[in-house]
Specification:
mainly alpha, 3 domains, 8 helices, flat
């Protein structure tokens, strides 16, 4: 579609004007939009959720980005982007940041599962949780609770055999 004003270039923007009940639509190219003052500075891009959490964990972008290893000059940004340290001193200099990055790397999925996998979750995850509770009950000599947990584990095991 051609620009509504110059008619020469391809339109990039759709501009809607509303006056009361009447609405007009104009298709505008970049050059005409700049001349009309329609292009203002774009808002900054929204940070990804991971970036927001990283800022919270480490203490904000400003403090982290300025951190530089005194031995080799590696910055936190280099570490985060490349996944490598520049020298052995980087381990001690960036230890908090490394812990935060490693802590988020292998976290377990906690969302919902498809129905066909729900039985596997019960068999593997819930069964292991029950076994831990059983060990704890036996360690603390809560034998009635341990018997109930043992029975629950047997039920899960018998369902898993099917």
């Amino acid at each position: 579609m051609r620009c509504s004003f110059c008619g020469k270039q391809e339109a990039t923007f759709r501009v809607e004007q509303t006056f009361g009940e009447e609405q007009t639509v104009h298709w505008v190219c970049v050059d005409c939009a700049e001349m009309a003052g329609l292009l203002t500075e774009l808002p900054p891009r929204m940070p990804r959720p991971a970036e927001l959490f990283e800022e919270l964990l480490i203490g904000g972008e400003d403090g982290v980005e300025e951190k530089v290893c005194p031995q080799c000059g590696t910055t936190y940004r280099d570490l985060r982007d490349q996944g490598r340290l520049g020298c052995p001193d980087c381990y001690t200099h960036f230890h908090q940041e490394i812990d935060a990055l490693i802590g988020t790397a292998g976290s377990a999925y906690s969302g919902s599962l498809p129905a066909r996998l729900e039985s596997l979750k019960t068999f593997y995850v819930d069964r292991e949780a029950l076994r831990e509770q059983l060990r704890s009950a036996l360690d603390h000599e809560r034998y009635e609770e341990a018997a109930h947990l043992r029975d629950a584990i047997h039920i899960i095991d018998s369902q898993g055999e099917r």
